Request: fold
Amino acid sequence: MTNNRLEIEVPPGEPAVVFRRFVDAPPELVFAVWTEPDHLRHWWGPRQFELVVCEIDPRAGGQYRFVQRPPDGQEHAFHGVYREFDRPQRLVRTFVYAGAPDDESVETVTFQCDGRGTLITGASVFPSFSASEYYAQGGMEVGLRESNQRLDEWLGAITHETNRRQS
Amino acid sequence: MNPATDELSSVFAALADPTRRAMLDRLRSGEATLNELALPFEMSVQGVSQHLKVLERAGLVTRGRLAQTRPARLSSGGLQAASGWLERYREFWYASFERLDEYLEDLQAREDGS
Reply:
């Protein structure tokens, strides 16, 4: 059974985060809206965030660059290189946030035909992500109590996943 | 050890192991010694100690200094970095997919209409 709920989990076995999401459109179309600037401007990022630069060289070895402008005007730039560009089922690319240029993650997105739509799975693996950037953004004031609450949610999701795999 | 210099990757690497997840789960109900942590896992104290070191390096656990047993307890450092990152990740994709649904619907309606 499929629904359009966004699932996010930390899979056992690698330092990665994975999302899964079903959309009501065939893989060919989903791949196109995922890789063409004219499409991406309409949906990539939160609604108030304008995608002011979106350049894509659509091939393995091709580069891409996105610049996002949130309401506060503080722009965020992302760039990387496509390692695989396999229409319409699979994309692998490096991902670098210009604010932390030494931290490169690798994103793999697959588009699986699933009945009337497409199941999208995206994995971000980060071998060298430094936490300091996120500390700087998020602040250090959050107390242990709130962290424990987050850990509950976090472990809840992880435990659910582990049980599912074992059963 | 300063948690601000920890790497987020070490948190996710630490959480990628089911035994370490179970150890964190156990520590939610309070601090525990090595022997207490080893009990449910059919694992040597040395094995548990190795896992604990990984959790410690990731800033997910701290060990007591005073008692000889050095009980382990949960720490907020590594978790804060990881959960903050995860929250932003979730928000980004939640918002994007909401827009993507609408956009795909528009596109397909236009195609049907033409």
